[in-house]
Amino acid sequence: MTAILSEETRLRDEIAGVGRSLFDRLFTFGSTGNISARLSSGEMLMTPTNASLGALDPGRLSKFSAEGVHLSGDKPTKEAFLHQCMYCERQDAGAVVHLHSTHAVAVSIIEGLDEADLLPPLTAYYAMRVGRLPLVPYYPPGDAALAGAVAEKARDSHAVLLANHGPVVAGATLREAQYATEELEETAKLFLMLRGERIRPLTAEQRDALARK
Ligand SMILES: O=C(O)[C@@H](O)C(=O)COP(=O)(O)O
Ligand SMILES: [Zn+2]
Prior knowledge:
L-fuculose-1-phosphate Aldolase, 8-stranded mixed sheet, 37% helix, EC 4.1.1.104, 3-oxo-tetronate 4-phosphate decarboxylase
């Protein structure tokens, strides 16, 4: 007989599976990064603080009410406010992924890039999955001011890059947030590989046509 899993059980398993996949493929390291997902009730599941994304226990994820009160599970990620801010600004968001992926972190440290949109649209897939990438000024991890600064940039973009820290990406589903975060990292890698070369990114018209799809 096929067991029918509840939405929450499915989402818990998915968070652990996505975390393991990202960790195993070196998209984040140690106990860096955090993941959250929103249930249709508005309640949120988040990864616990100091947990490795490679070894999450679905039953120990932190659960929050729709109003942001910690209800159960382990002590939540110190970026819980940041995740909640993303959901406030992005009404369509069903999940948020934050990583310390190496190439994106490197881009977050470079001086002199366009802080309203750090990476050029090198490929169609980047334009479709990520779009624009604003820089959020530096604040220490877990600082309440970091959450406010993210909210300001998230109004116009589902993906932001925290200065000297890493990407935060919202998606309608956890898979969408995961794929967009991976695309951001690969494009950051391409951008660094191509520094010093003459490049031909997509034009504004080509990018805008893809963003509408
Ligand atoms: O960079 C940090 O300290 C946090 O943003 C992070 O990535 C991991 O913190 P926890 O989710 O509290 O473990
Ligand atoms: Zn972090």
